[in-house]
Design brief:
mainly alpha, 174 residues, Ferritin
Length: 174
């Protein structure tokens, strides 16, 4: 086995771990959606579920393109734990489900962050970075829904406008 083959084998291992991660995430979204009553949050979570399912398909395709063997996804111990926590927290309704998904997305973001630092062929690197961007978007949206539903939204238009008008403009002369 050449050094290149060993390297590709390690890359495939990393990508297979991401397939399992996205599969587990999709199961937690299915569990959480049962408890989401808020239309806007439901719309986003359904979209995020589709993202995770797409990630599994794209990563599977890339592994095959690299000459590797994609894993056969299954419930593993991490997935069972994440699913159990999601089910427990989701009993608290929409907010409980969103908080569970925030925890899950923080974990998913950490794993994708680490994967983005792995040296791999561009075809793999591009998809990992695109998926990481999706994960960051998921987390930001979930946090925004939690803030909106708890009344802790920091989105204050008057304050934002006031701060913008008080900020010095570098393109104007003094």
């Amino acid at each position: 086995m050449t050094e290149h083959d060993k390297w590709i084998g390690k890359v495939v291992d990393h990508l297979n771990k991401l397939i399992q991660l996205d599969f587990d995430a999709s199961l937690t979204y299915k569990d959480a959606l049962v408890h989401i009553d808020d239309g806007a949050a439901r719309f986003d979570l359904e979209s995020f579920l589709r993202d995770h399912e797409r990630h599994v398909m794209e990563l599977t395709s890339i592994i095959r393109d690299l000459g590797g063997e994609p894993i056969s996804v299954h419930r593993d111990i991490k997935g069972i734990v994440l699913e159990g926590v999601t089910k427990l927290r989701s009993r608290g309704g929409t907010l409980g489900a969103l908080r569970a998904m925030r925890m899950n997305e923080k974990y998913t973001n950490r794993v994708y962050d680490r994967a983005s630092e792995v040296y791999m062929p561009p075809i793999g690197q591009v998809i990992v970075l695109e998926n990481l961007a999706d994960e960051r978007r998921h987390l930001a949206a979930i946090e925004a829904h939690i803030d909106r539903l708890t009344g802790k939204s920091a989105y204050d238009v008057d304050r934002i406008d006031r701060e913008a008008s008080e900020r010095p403009r570098p393109w104007t002369s003094v």
